[in-house]
Amino acid sequence: MRLCLKEMIPIAKKRKNGEGTLRLRKDGRWEGRIVVGYNEKSLPITKCVTAKTKTECSTKLEALKEQYGRSSDKIKPDMPFGDWIDFWYQTYCRHTLRITTRTDYENRIYNHIIPEIGKIPLNRLSQSDLQQFYAKEKTDGRKLHAKTYGKGLSDRTIRGIHANCRTALQRAVQEGLIRTNPAVGCKLPPKKAREMQVLTQNEIIRFLHQAKEEGCYELFLLKLEDVRAVLADMSRKGHTAEIRALLQKYGAAKLSGVDPANYSVLLKDVEGLDPAE
Known about the structure:
α2 crosses α6 (155-174) and α3 (99-117) packs across α6 (155-174). Helix content is 47%, strand content 10%. The model is unreliable at 3-12 (pLDDT under 50). The chain folds into three domains: 2-73, no CATH class; 81-174, DNA polymerase, domain 1 (Orthogonal Bundle); 201-271, no CATH class. The protein is built from ten helices and five strands, in the order βββββαααααααααα. The strands form two sheets. It has a three-stranded antiparallel beta sheet with strand order 3-4-5, covered by helices on one side.
């Protein structure tokens, strides 16, 4: 214990994460408190004990940790990696996640990571262990619906598993349990960019017409070049005369003379020229 020289008030020495806190209350009794979990709003749930002396309070606090928490002597370098990633998830991670995200984390941790590499000691887990684990999951890791989706996990799931392992191991580095993070440098499946879906000519026309009906057309305001491209395509299909007639309908001999506010309805009319599309 240290003393604050200004007021001569005893100040409890700072304790490590997970050990709880001890403090001397104004009424002269000692109080010990630990965090046993978090509620749905991510606020800590605490339990406390009190005693007349610091020694007695410390003893009660240890008993409280055994009852509600995880004893600090179980957190050590040679503990099974499965126990560590479970502790990491329950202590540092779970309360920060949305319910749907928790489901993804728990599936990866409890259905894949722990069953496959959970028995390896934390300080013995190597990059090779992780790399072999990812390769196995990629080819034969799916637990459900293997007949529909294949035996292997998707690239996205493999990257998610790796992210959980890497973050948990990095926490172990910060806690001084291991010197380096073996997940750093692992080779992962590349991220595949989604193929761009290009709308057809008629799909563009219908989309813009619907946007105008719903009052959000300005967000997708057509440019002269956009309309000209559609008309040129229809002209190549043999509708030149019909296009000229439509332009005259809107009081113009050429497209540049049409009011931009009429572009949407003009394209709607153009759509009717080629119903087979």
